[in-house]
Design a protein that fits this description.
mainly beta; 2 helices; 24 strands; 4% helix; globular
Length: 276
């Protein structure tokens, strides 16, 4: 597991392009046949990619967690972004189709991932936060997501939110998670841009065409920065930073938050006219 220590506002202002990428961007989330994990000091978040090929993969507790097993003091949200696969959480086995979600509760001792077809593997993206309470491990298909249609074609931000882990959906200790799909002919996400100082957020962009790029915007409203991203890359957004972006083609992205509360709409909008 790779550890990341995110810079504050003052240091971020001093970073060049490579410095921003090194601090906030995860360029390679998935490695075939491996569990690939990244730990962030902000809210002690962990993200990762699990891509089983010829054999199942077990989620072990890295030494940095000082835990007997990964979920000893943690919960996990998982969304499969590729072909069908299975997740086994202790004695529960879930068949997980593309873009379906599994929540794994604190105290689950063994989590195993596998692909239905090793030649066409599943790709399980996960986000984990510490948990002080126990909620049941749960699987949800696309039909169980709470869907919100937002944005409009005129402003090129028409999009569909799929909310999986939230206060009225799959219950968790502090994790909130789902994914958004940008409709064809639209490019912008997360409009208007905002911050929420009560929780950090992590974005993972996927289903972006190979020739396309994402322009992910961050920073404070008066000191904006951008990071150029490609398909299947992740970026961390600390509590002080805005987060929004635009792609050269439509795409999907997984958003996950953890921190002080779980109210999805708890955000502080930033007027576009104030951006610098």
């Amino acid at each position: 597991m790779e550890s990341r220590y995110l810079p504050d506002q003052a240091r971020t202002k001093t970073l060049d392009t490579q410095g921003l990428r090194d601090a906030f961007l995860v360029e390679t989330v998935f490695v075939p046949g491996k569990v690939n994990l990244f730990h962030f000091d902000v809210d002690r978040a962990v993200i990762g990619g699990v891509m089983p090929t010829s054999a199942p993969l077990t989620l072990e507790a890295p030494p940095e967690l000082r835990a007997t097993y990964f979920c000893e003091r943690r919960e996990i949200g998982i969304i499969n972004i590729a072909a069908a696969g299975k997740i086994t959480a202790d004695d529960k086995v879930f068949a997980v189709k593309p873009r379906e979600c599994v929540y794994v509760g604190r105290g689950t001792k063994k989590v195993v991932f596998e692909s239905d077809d090793p030649a066409n593997p599943a790709a399980f993206y996960l986000t984990s936060f510490p948990a002080h309470n126990v909620f049941p491990t749960t699987h949800a298909g696309l039909d169980k997501a709470r869907i919100k249609e937002i944005g409009n074609q005129e402003e090129a931000n028409k999009r569909r939110l799929h909310q999986y882990i939230h206060m009225e959906g799959i219950r968790s200790c502090q994790l909130v998670m789902g994914f958004t799909e940008i409709e064809a002919g639209n490019v912008w996400n997360t409009q208007p841009p905002h911050t929420h100082t009560r929780r950090c957020e992590l974005y993972f962009y996927f289903d972006l065409a190979p020739e396309a790029i994402m322009m992910h915007f961050m920073g404070t409203p008066d000191e904006t920065r951008h990071i150029v991203m490609k398909d299947r890359q992740a970026v961390a957004s600390p509590v002080w930073s805005m987060h929004f972006g635009a792609g050269t083609k439509n795409y999907r992205f997984i958003w996950a938050m953890g921190g002080e509360n779980q109210a999805f709409d708890d955000m502080d909008h930033v007027a576009l006219a104030k951006l610098r």
